[in-house]
């Protein structure tokens, strides 16, 4: 592979003028069996490059324990792209945003309550260095300078939107170079004065991110970099969804028009996203502008290639723009994956959460309720339990700084829910003999962008009745990363109320494997596993109505579904259908 160079306002690859025509495809949001399909469709559309982030939290789930297998096999993804004739841009910044949990930072960083993120903080930088010591040896052999497909790497991601510590940016750049990253290094930021001042380095290529008004945005960039190539490193051609909000979409002709204008200006462009994929498991992020807003499981992004990898109208219009500008475009449109309606799957076994707490979790005892991170937990749920004396009548129960959504029970009976985005006290009565108070808190995704990035989960301040804080707590971490210990029983299982959290299990026999979608009509809120793989979250409040189930997660013969339902279902039946529902 040839090396990418900058000569004034032009890129050169192997000594010849070159324009980057790139699309973002995140390996960690796609099952590995479909990586080739998505990359082939990217190339068929006319793109010559694929761009991907690298999420630190996926690759170092526990401090000092690194993972580069399966969906985390970044080496295989990059190698495959090169074999298909694509160049690769890698963005291995410690922070990636990406609507990904904690912006890609690992939750275990927050064990250090005094840590300062994304700056010259010694504790933070030691963790970054250890991560890069493990990651960079995987990437360096794949650099174009070593004959591989990687032509450029990012130093930090939209740093000007967060801070202005130039020493920190220089530290990261030096660290990449010292570990062998000798390809083109760049920064990417929004095209505003403060962002370009805070997020760039004088000796690194600067790029900008935006979704419209290219003439205006590139003009602002030119005020700072009059002679560098024009690069839109993130062309936001779609957008992501939050729970409780409408589904986002953007007209294909508008996307094509803005793209055409960027190419007419001579710019290089990276589509964010070309194919979004899925926030499997607990890896969705969240935003915090005026209030906390968690991101849904689907990362369809209204991109040219849909969540399940199908060609859209946007794909067709973008392809025609690329053809107009001389890109190598496939003569035929790629085929969609095969979908199948498998029908209803009835849950045949169940186990209520309160009946299996001790089997699932080893409790910790503290005077005050602690956040997840202090107990070594990253994701999932945590249950707080204490004994309250009585009698108490009409007192207000306050959960100070609950993150993110708490269900409250007195002696096993549900009394209400407290949500971070709309906090309010619950009025409670405690009988004369006292009562057990249980609080089940769901981590709905750490903030991935902005000043609220340091986002501990669980109960982060305290619990009080009126003005009296409650002390002496048992805490049950529930990461739900292994469900073998759940003591399922066949129906009729122990009778549960409509608001009791319950695990359900059901089976489906499959002889013909295809993509499908899990429809949860009549269910309320929870998470779904298929054959031990965590598909993600569902919530009746939408906008997402189905969960994408890629065919490779099924197997011929018996398949096992497990559902953790928080509030109850009208009937314990799911449906596997052949089309998604968003909106």
Automatic annotation (TrEMBL):
Superkingdom as given in the UniProt entry: Bacteria
Keyword Hydrolase among record annotations: yes
Location of the active site: 158 (proton donor), 234 (nucleophile)
Segments forming domain Beta-galactosidase galactose-binding: 501-559
Signal in keyword set: yes
Family: Belongs to the glycosyl hydrolase 35 family.
Protein name per the record: Beta-galactosidase
